[in-house]
Design goal:
Elements: H1 2-19, H2 32-37, E1 41-43, E2 49-51, E3 57-62, E4 65-71, E5 74-78, E6 91-94, E7 100-102, E8 106-110, E9 117-122, E10 126-131
Antiparallel strand pairs: 1-10, 2-7, 3-4, 4-5, 5-10, 6-8, 8-9
Length: 133
């Protein structure tokens, strides 16, 4: 019985890495729209903060809830912790305590037509995507 368990354990240990190979962007939930936006890029190691004055543009995707911040040629993908209702394409208002936007910072969502607040979300880690070489 001990040999049988050891063999099964050995097979599982050797086969598992081949089946579940680690990816740099494992923390990002993908969708066809996100894959299209990130085509031709490579994920880097997630970072906790980005420089807000350097952000040139941002966009939202609603499935899954994703905010993409563009700094130069790098796109930082953020999927707010616990989700966020970005389906109605709200205005994102951030009031960070410094010039950096960081994981855990709270962003407010404002309805585009009524200008009323519609919620808030806590940001997750920022996964950088740079052009593939």
């Amino acid at each position: 019985m001990l040999v049988r368990i050891s063999t099964a354990f050995l097979i599982a240990t050797v086969a598992l890495p081949a089946v579940a190979a680690p990816r740099a962007d494992l923390s990002v939930r993908h969708s066809p729209a996100l894959d299209k936006e990130l085509a031709g890029t490579v994920a880097g190691k997630p970072v906790d903060c980005i420089s807000l004055p350097r952000v040139r543009s941002s966009m939202t995707l609603s499935n899954p809830d994703t905010i993409i911040y563009r700094i130069g040629r790098t796109r930082y993908v953020n999927q707010p912790a616990g989700g966020c209702n970005l389906r109605s394409d709200p205005i994102i208002v951030s009031q960070p305590p410094s010039t950096r936007l960081c994981r855990g910072d709270i962003i407010s969502l404002v309805d585009r037509s009524s200008r009323f607040p519609v919620g808030s979300c806590g940001l997750g880690s920022f996964v950088p995507y740079t052009p593939a070489k």
